[in-house]
Design goal:
263 residues; alpha+beta; 65% helix; globular
Length: 263
């Protein structure tokens, strides 16, 4: 991420603080829709991401093209467009992230968007045909959105809005990456990090609590644990927090040992 993008994203996050919880879901949905419109137009993307273009001129374009947006979404999108972004993809990613954060702001107590997102990702990843249907480049965005709606009938409207957008504008990412990224953004909006813990057998509640406490102390912030059971690792744990991976699995140690013996 370039310095321009970091500054633009920080500015957009500050602007989001002024959006109320009751307006945030509508703002999120409208930002997602606007992001898809911008993503489908190479000319519009280039104009809005051009670092040499006048900020007021870019904001004027937003005002003309997206006059139907509600005030919160329009204000957020205008601010995003007026900022400098390192690349066109960073601009789209910025719109998407602020949309996800807005959805998180709108979620009430008792709704765990991270859990819903991970559950959806796990269900899709475990079914090759379903994963292909959701992630294939050949499928139409509308068909993918309809499939998501049929799969997420019991999910919160926030999770539905996020996943519908992700499958319609994946930007080259697989469904697992899409869901993990969205869950991490949702957790960060709540001041948390997400740790994906892979073990050969399910961990007990007490084990998860100890692990959470240890990782939180190490990383300096509270964590949400996403537990994945994978018998192929044989034993031990593999933990991923953002880009950091702690691999203490037996399968990895055995692989390392075989490499050392063969060298």
């Amino acid at each position: 991420m370039g310095s321009a993008t970091r500054e633009a994203l920080a500015s957009a996050k500050r602007a989001l603080e002024g959006v109320s919880a009751k307006d945030a879901l509508t703002a999120a949905t409208q930002l997602f829709e606007a992001g898809r419109v911008i993503g489908e137009s190479a000319q519009l993307r280039a104009a809005l991401a051009d670092p040499a273009a006048d900020a007021a001129a870019k904001q004027s374009v937003i005002g003309a093209l997206f006059s139907g947006l509600g005030a919160p979404a329009k204000s957020l999108l205008t601010g995003i467009a007026g900022s400098r972004w390192s690349t066109q993809d960073d601009l789209l990613a910025g719109i998407e992230e602020i949309g996800i954060r807005a959805a998180a702001v709108s979620a009430g107590k008792g709704i765990s968007l991270e859990d819903e997102l991970f559950a959806f990702g796990a269900a899709v990843s475990s079914d090759a045909e379903l994963e292909l249907a959701v992630g294939s480049k050949l499928g139409s965005p509308a068909a993918k959105a309809a499939l998501v709606r049929s799969l997420l009938k019991r999910a919160s409207p926030q999770t539905l809005a996020i996943v519908e957008h992700l499958v319609q504008q994946p930007r080259g990412r697989r469904i697992g990456e899409l869901v993990r990224s969205a869950a991490s953004i949702v957790a960060d909006q709540a001041g948390l990090s997400v740790a994906t813990v892979v073990s050969a057998v399910p961990l007990s509640a007490a084990q998860l609590d100890r692990l959470r406490a240890g990782l939180a102390k190490q990383h300096g912030r509270d964590l949400r644990i996403n537990q994945v059971v994978d018998p192929s690792i044989i034993g031990g744990l593999r933990v991923q927090i953002g880009d950091d991976v702690i691999d203490g699995s037996v399968s990895t140690r055995l692989t390392d040992l075989r490499i050392r013996l063969a060298s």
